[in-house]
Design brief:
single chain, 156 residues, 0% strand, mainly alpha, 3 helices
Length: 156
């Protein structure tokens, strides 16, 4: 029985005790950062600190002086750009109004042409109908006359 409990304890240790694995991973990470990388991270941090200090001490004053000279010119150019943009927008709006007027004129012109076409077609259809009725009447008269002549000839 004691051997069985010892084997169960050993199985539990193998399945659920991760300390040996974690200790190996921890030692690997420490070795990786301490031995291989060395002080590169610390050196890069000091280098960045020097750069920031240099920028703060020298370049900010130069930037302020340069900005004092350039910013008024930049503001003037921005104002000119805004004026040009406003003119372009006004031109676009004017062209849109002209385009809509031209579109309305063309639509009205096409409507008038269509109405004129329909009127012409109705006139032509009426003329053809009249011509047809006249021919029909002429043929009716002709056949009536022929029929009448045939009846006269046959009655003699």
């Amino acid at each position: 029985m004691s051997e069985l409990s010892r084997e169960i304890g050993e199985i539990w240790t193998r399945l659920f005790d991760h300390r040996p694995f974690l200790n190996g991973e921890i030692s690997f990470m420490l070795k990786e950062f301490e031995e291989k990388r060395g002080d590169r991270d610390v050196e890069s941090l000091f280098s960045m600190l020097e750069n920031f200090t240099d920028v703060r001490d020298t370049h900010i004053e130069k930037l302020a002086k340069t900005g004092g000279l350039v910013l008024p010119l930049l503001l003037q150019k921005i104002g000119q750009t805004r004026e040009l943009a406003a003119e372009a927008e006004k031109t676009c709006i004017d062209l849109d109004v002209v385009y809509k007027q031209k579109q309305a004129e063309n639509r009205e012109k096409r409507r008038k042409e269509w109405d004129r076409f329909i009127d012409d077609m109705n006139f032509n259809c009426q003329r053809i109908d009249n011509t047809f009725e006249e021919k029909e009447e002429e043929l009716r008269d002709l056949y009536t006359d022929l029929n009448h002549k045939l009846n006269i000839n046959s009655s003699k």
